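Task 17 of the worksheet. Students: predict the tertiary structure of the chain below and write it out as structure tokens. Keep your answer in the requested format; marks are given for formatting as well as content.
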Amino acid sequence: MRSDRVIGAIDFHTAGIGMRLLTSGLGRLPGSTIADKRRWFQEHLDDLRTGLCLEPRGHRGLLIAVMTEPVTPAAHFGLFFIYPGGYYVSCGEGTIGAATVAVETGLVPRTGVETPVVIDTEAGVVETIARSDGDRVRDVTLRWTASFVALPEQVIEVEGVGEVPVDIAVGVGNVFAIVEAGHVGVSVRQDERGQRARPRAA
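Model answer:
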């Protein structure tokens, strides 16, 4: 069998969300920032994103964290995120999972019960602490860039609903529209969680 590229990857779950961490096989990605490295990957290796994220190697709900060399002196490694539809600036649960995998596999050596793992992302430097119980990481704390409301009290037009008031917020480098559930005709109840998630995953 002939292989042009061999990729090292570890699949894992964070809070039930299936994810994958690419650990090797990409070589050194050019760029002095994580954004530079992600852009180079996007321009030159986007076929790798689709090949890994889509079936048969992936699925529509898969998020992949791509590990790179760090770009700041204190960081252990860098991360950017790919998924079937494109690229994410950052991801909290993906970062927690990557820190866990890095410590449990020895990519970052343990320093005792608490192991600091510093990660470069497009949104800035993330400081995490992985807490171990024996050979397993049991929880991870992370400290990220500040979240904030960028555009409060906006109104957008939603097809089939009409005008909806929203607050536009920035968190971990991503942009979110925060809306009251009742303004789009839904309720937030435990027994309805599957009904709400399925249509929006299509």
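Marker's comment: The longest strand covers residues 148-158. Helices lie at 34-44, 46-53, 92-104, 193-201.
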